[in-house]
Design brief:
- This protein is α+β, with helices and mostly antiparallel strands.
- The protein folds into 3 domains: 32 residues; 189 residues, Penicillin-binding protein 2a (Domain 2) (Alpha-Beta Complex); 339 residues, Beta-lactamase (3-Layer(aba) Sandwich).
- It has 21 helices and 24 strands.
- Strand 22 and strand 23 form a beta hairpin.
- Helix 1 crosses helix 2, helix 10 runs antiparallel to helix 20 and helix 13 crosses helix 15.
- The radius of gyration is 33 Å and the shape is elongated.
- 40% of the residues are buried.
């Protein structure tokens, strides 16, 4: 019994001795061997400075610089190190309101007495030079180098996007960011933030009682170097983008141009637009409020977010579906007596007499496509109109219409094309027919697509049956390739031979049909006009096209709000864009002048 007691006693003593030894070793390590402990204890004489990397530059596809960095400075404060100072003097140097500065100073104190906070952002180089000379008078304050984005060509604001201060929500979800950091808010700046931002570094300095840096702590042993962000080569053609913005001056609308063979976005214009330089430096907040309150809505990206009826451009899709479903052939013709009659209702048309397949495209016959749509929905292949409609809708969706394409641009909207449940609810189960929704035959009714989607539809026809997801970045420095999703072909379940027939009709549209205003000698342009009905005012002018006919280099969609017929504004603008890109010159100066000088902002 005694031996057992002694054994337990010795065991307990052994445990306590071991714990004591471990404690002593740890204490020795912390105080003698590990400098990190000493580093923590010396915080009152050390300054931790974040080294912000330069963001990567953004170029166009030909090497033109679109976005670069310009040095600015932030005034930082460590409240615990502050001493009495002349607030008025400091505010005069900064050229800022004293009351505002005091509020920011109180925020810094509330945040932390020991950690640095920004009290005045984005000081210019001129102001910084004066401040640096007098900084010794303001203990606890120091300057941190930052940068702002600059846009030398002042174009493509909706594509390039802008950089702003990180939100509290982002700070919570991503530990990389701290209060006061900047982050891509929209466009390429947002989509490729992780590549453009680089990696922050850290510098630790010894500081004397006058707040002057005496050197690096421990010879920079604990410093880390900032890693510059990766440069990005965008798909944009700066010259084409600039030209598109010029053509849409004083007009509401959009232009989307795509390289069909790659899905690369050559130009994306939303008008009215804005100068991206308005979102740089200290004027960002003031300019943002002005743009938000502008009645022309320059911040609204019409190319990606505006829903328009596709109008007669949609006849191309119905023609392809009709051929694939074998309800028509290229020899099919229908009689048009000025419209398509449904009881007392008539879908009006400007044609008369018999219209064949190619004539239906070149002349944009409404009656023809009402017949085609009715045949699709009444096909003997399906047991009901509802089933036939569902199949038809699947075809439309496969063209990227009525759904998000998955681009690298934010805020892309899906569009509208309702499923059969919508009509069952609205009209009643089995109580609606092809004639009930006949407006869809000509791109009206319950259809709403974005110009972005319509441009992609045009690229599909140019490729004779497939597309690459449209995207804005061609290459990222240091990476072998972009995301593989943008390198995959997406095929449409329609035979290539039918695309060839539709392309022939599109060639006739420009050479002898409704879009002769887009004709350009020496270059075969294939197109289709559209006039989208607008219940709120004058119709919208639409035109889609690609060129050349074989091995197309560009596919384009142009929407001009309240522009009337597609041939009046949209077709000439698209034709000029194509000529500029393919031929690198403009031969029709008279047409260019008319388009540039056209003022349509008063049209409603």
């Amino acid at each position: 019994m005694q031996n057992t007691f002694l054994g337990r006693k010795n065991g307990i003593i052994t445990i306590f001795v071991c714990l004591a030894i471990i404690y002593v070793i740890r204490l020795f390590t912390l105080q003698i061997l590990e400098s990190d402990y000493k580093l923590s204890a010396d915080n009152n004489v050390l300054r931790y400075t974040t080294e912000y990397p330069a963001r990567g530059l953004i170029f166009d596809r030909n090497g033109a610089l679109l976005v670069y960095n310009e040095a600015l400075y932030d005034l930082m404060v460590i409240p615990k190190q502050m001493k009495d100072f002349d607030t008025t003097d400091l505010c005069e140097i900064l050229e800022t309101n004293k009351e505002f500065f005091i509020i920011e100073l109180e925020k810094a104190k509330t945040y932390s007495l020991y950690k640095p906070s920004i009290v005045y952002k984005q000081i210019s180089s001129i102001r910084y030079a004066e401040l640096q000379e007098k900084l010794y008078k303001f203990p606890g304050f120091y300057v941190q180098t930052r940068s702002t984005r600059k846009y030398p060509l002042s174009i493509a604001a909706h594509v390039l996007g802008y950089v702003g201060e990180v939100s509290p929500k982002t700070i919570e979800s991503d530990k990389y960011y701290k209060s006061g950091d900047y982050i891509g808010i929209s466009g390429i700046e947002k989509s490729y933030e992780k590549y453009l931002r680089g990696v922050k570094g850290l510098k630790i300095y010894l500081v004397d009682v006058h707040n002057r840096i005496k050197g690096s702590y421990k010879e920079g042993r604990y410093d880390s170097t900032a890693v510059v962000g990766r440069n990005v080569i965008s798909t944009l053609d700066a010259t084409l983008q600039q030209y598109g913005e010029l053509l849409l001056l004083n007009k509401r609308g959009s232009i989307v141009a795509i390289e069909p063979s790659t899905g690369e976005i050559l130009a994306l214009v939303s008008s009215p637009g804005y100068d991206p330089n308005l979102f740089t430096a200290s004027e960002r907040s003031k300019n943002y409020k002005k743009l938000v309150n502008d009645s022309l809505k320059p911040l609204f990206n019409r190319a990606l977010m505006a829903y328009y009826p596709p109008g007669s451009t949609f006849k191309l899709v119905n023609a392809l579906i009709g051929l694939q479903e074998n309800v028509i052939t290229t020899t099919s013709s229908f009689s048009c007596g000025g419209g398509f009659n449904i009881g007392s209702h008539i879908v009006k048309c400007h044609h008369g007499g018999a219209v064949d397949f190619y004539g239906s495209i070149s002349g944009s016959c409404n009656s023809y496509y009402c017949n085609v749509f009715a045949r699709i929905l009444n096909s003997d292949k399906y047991n009901s109109v509802e089933i036939a409609y569902t199949k038809w809708r699947e075809y439309v969706l496969s063209f990227g219409l009525g759904k998000k394409l998955g681009s690298d641009l934010q805020y892309e909207l899906p569009g509208i094309i309702y499923n059969s449940d919508y009509y069952n609810k609205y009209y009643g189960k089995n109580k609606w027919r092809a004639f009930t929704i006949i407006s869809m035959a000509i791109g009206q009714g319950e259809l709403g697509f974005t110009p972005f989607q319509i441009a992609n539809m045009t690229a599909i026809i140019a490729n004779r049956g497939y597309y690459y997801i449209p995207h804005t970045v061609k290459k990222i420095d240091g990476l072998e390739t972009i995301d593989s999703i943008y390198l995959q072909k997406n095929y449409i379940n329609i035979e290539q031979q039918y695309f060839e027939e539709v392309v022939k009709g599109m060639q006739m549209v420009v050479e002898s049909g409704t879009a002769y205003s887009a004709y350009l000698p020496g270059l075969t342009i294939c197109g289709k006009t559209g006039t989208a009905q607008n219940p709120h005012g004058e119709d919208h002018s639409i035109f889609v096209a690609f060129a050349p006919m074989e091995n197309p280099k560009i596919a384009i969609a142009v929407y001009i709000e309240n522009g009337g017929f597609g041939s009046t504004w949209a077709a000439p603008i698209a034709s000029l864009m194509i000529e500029k890109y393919v031929n690198d010159t403009i031969t029709r100066k008279w047409l260019e002048d008319r388009m540039i000088n056209g003022y349509l902002l008063n049209n409603k």
